[in-house]
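Standup notes, structure subgroup. Blocker cleared on the adenosine-5'-triphosphate input:
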Amino acid sequence: MTTSTPAIEVSNLTRAFGKVRAVDGLSFQAAAGEVVGFIGANGAGKTTTMRILATLDSPDSGTAKIGGHDVADRPEQVREILGWVPDAFTAYENLTVAEYVDFFARAHGYSGGERRNRIEDVLGFTGLDKLADRLANKMSKGQTQRLCLCRALLHDPQVLILDEPAAGLDPQARVELKQLIRILADDGRTLLISSHILSELGEMCDRLIFIDAGKLLHDGSAEDLLRGAASDRTLVDIRVVPGSGDPTTTLELQPGVEIVEALRSGTRVSLDDDSPEALARLLKQLVGSGLHVTGFHTIERNLDETFIKMLGKANGSVETSPVSTSIPPAR
Ligand code: ATP
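Run returned:
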């Protein structure tokens, strides 16, 4: 692989299951050394794309390449340079962590001192050296995730594909995962990481790829995404003393104001004008209508909100439709 060859290259990829077009004309690239977040709602096509890249499934049309090797034509070459961390993982029964890793090191063709060194390196890197004698199928979610990463790193792959690696991890384990990812990237490896935890991905990725219904929605940095959203309508949270009245009645009458979401003791609105004068006018109207306003502040859009907004646009829904926070009473 030369430095100009993309580490990952997906071109017009399509994969259908019956009538479901899981991946629908998807194209994107990742350069060597890049950490790319792969984001989409449930069923968006992330796992299907990643399984194709990992040579575990075949596209109906289009191409997927790892280090310039087509996954369909040259799966052996792809597997040599690719590490795959699936979203679901079960270790074999009655094997310790050390035995499990040793088994896969042998499968990769390591022997003698080289195998011992390699196992020591990956166990040490993932912090599993302290758990080497534990049964591999009796570990916590975070430890299991690390074992999966450990296995994927055994053959020193240049490209890593991680499907939802942060799912189910506690905050401490997430921080540790993030640190491991950063070290791997600083080492020049390319990582494609899928997740629903967008804010976390924003911090750890150089680029974010958003997909929906198998199609590309956005490809750029987290900053690009937030900058794009920032030029849009401004969000304001309004809080009132509980039981002092419903701000929506007043808000619905204000031009340029749309209700986004009901909050506990308040409402989130979006405004087409966020000048100090317009904000002051709105606050005056609320107070003038007899509401006991305790909070009135603009909020920054975060990645999750931007993603939901983007999905709404792609599906033709209106972003500002009110969302109820109450459960309907039993009938
Ligand atoms: P999640 O975040 O929920 O894991 P995803 O983005 O990874 O979702 P995929 O697992 O790729 O989504 O699924 C994309 C679509 O393809 C879904 O509608 C799913 O039901 C369908 N699908 C995936 N694999 C199969 C299969 N083997 N047979 C039938 N349908 C499938």
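Discussed briefly. The chain has two domains: 8-221, 233-300.
Next: hand off to the docking folks.
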